[in-house]
Amino acid sequence: MPKPQGKFVDQPPENPTEEKASSATRTLYRKKVEAGELDEKEIEVDLAMNASNIEIMGPPGMEEMTGQLQSMMESLSNKRIKSRRLKIKKALKLLQEDEASKLINEDEIRTKALDSVEQNGIVFLDEIDKICKRSEHGGDVSREGVQRDLLPLVEGCAVTTK
Questions:
Q1: Facing residues of 43 across strands?
Q2: Are residues 110 and 131 in the same domain?
Q3: How many Å apart are CA 13 and CA 113, to the nearest integer?
């Protein structure tokens, strides 16, 4: 039976000196890459292609559901891997971006954004004319409805005015 070509990652090296040589070579090339000596050399890199983002739009008030649908569609999309020939400098940049995107926690970002808006946000009162009474005559008929809609928004909030 012929011996298979190549090595599996799980298999230990047949020769212990081979592992030391491989480690020394890897260290040598790492130093060259970090020093920028190999920036203009071309290598072949397998990169995940970004699937085209599909924007899902929903009715007002359903933002959370549309966000969940969006993340579900992104997770279902096939992450295709494409082999590309690039210069080392460009390949390093793309690989760093790819790894950095894996570290982003979308739920944590969303939670922090909501907290920031709740604590530091500004509410613009577009309907202020319907809340306040005019000096010439009484408030608009719809004034009570606007107050009823706005009060729950600011209830329990620490509101600072300028």
A1: 86
A2: no
A3: 50
For Cα atoms 75, 118, 133, give the angle at the middle one, nearest 5 degrees: 130
Residue 47 contacts residue 94 (beta carbons within 8 Å): yes
User: Which residue range forms the structural domain that includes residue 137?
Assistant: 122-162
pLDDT at 4: 43
* pTM flag (> 0.70): no
Same structural domain for residues 27 and 78? yes
Q: Which amino acid is at 67?
A: G
Residue whose entry in the numeric block shows the structure tokens 């599909």: 54
| AA letter at 26 | R
- Same-domain pairing of 138 and 110: no
Does residue 115 share a domain with residue 95?
A: yes
Confidence of residue 116 (pLDDT cuts 50, 70, 90): confident
Asked if residue 2 has pLDDT above 70, the reply is no
- In the DSSP assignment, the letter for residue 160 is -
Handedness of CA 22, 24, 25, 30 (dihedral sign): positive
Domain match, 78 and 5 both:
yes
**101 and 88 within one domain:** yes
Residue with tokens 């699937």: 51
